[in-house]
Design a protein that fits this description.
By secondary structure, the chain is an alpha+beta fold. It is built from six helices and four strands; from the N terminus they run ααβαβαβαβα. It has helices at residues 3-14, 28-40, 58-67, 90-110, 125-132, 151-154, and strands at residues 50-55, 79-85, 114-119, 139-147. A four-stranded antiparallel β-sheet has the order 1-2-4-3, with helices on both faces. Helix 2 runs antiparallel to helix 4. It starts with a helix and ends in a 20-residue tail after the last helix.
């Protein structure tokens, strides 16, 4: 296998959630590179029905962490990106939102940063809308925290080859 192909595949296999960060700020060039990845991520019929809100304000990140149990890590990150969906098609929104969130994780990992996908439940959306200046029907469900991982966050949790089930357990052919 050529080096470039193996590098990409290895990166995809090793992408994981990071939820604990140091206080070191994310370089503006790194943040802009991640936002360029967002811009170039594919979307359903190339509609690009999203906006990205860079959350630099620590108070706003802490409030999101208080509001949403699935986004607690946002409060400890030096920066976060909220994915604003326009709210016109729930099925397409979910598909496109997930694609770009995963791309943010991959891009952060490529730059030796960490990222964690946070999620707000529908009852939390009105307050998050207000915090971020989003007008209905648009909403923010996904907030991705980004930063430099702590040493503990970088540590592997499982031994080599033990973190995933064998392919035979969930792949079949017909």
């Amino acid at each position: 296998m050529n080096d470039a192909r193996e590098t990409v595949l290895r990166s995809l296999r090793r992408t994981r959630q990071i939820r604990r960060f140091t206080d070191e700020p994310v370089a503006e060039t790194d943040l802009q590179a991640i936002l360029e990845v967002c811009r170039w991520t594919g979307s359903s019929m190339n509609t690009q029905q999203w906006r990205f809100i860079v959350i630099r304000d620590a108070g706003v990140r802490r409030r999101i962490a208080e509001l949403s149990r699935y986004a607690r890590h946002v409060g400890g990150a030096p920066v976060a990106i909220a994915i604003e969906m326009l709210g016109e098609d729930a099925e397409t929104d979910a598909y496109d939102e997930a694609r770009v969130a995963e791309r943010i994780l991959i891009a952060a990992g490529a730059m030796e940063l960490g990222a964690g996908i946070g999620w707000a439940e529908a009852p939390e959306w009105p307050e998050i809308r207000e915090l971020l200046g989003v007008r209905p029907p648009a909403f923010v469900r996904t907030i991705v925290s980004i930063g430099h991982p702590t040493d503990e966050a970088r540590r592997k949790r499982t031994g080599p080859g033990t973190g995933r089930r064998p392919l035979e357990e969930f792949v079949r052919e017909r």
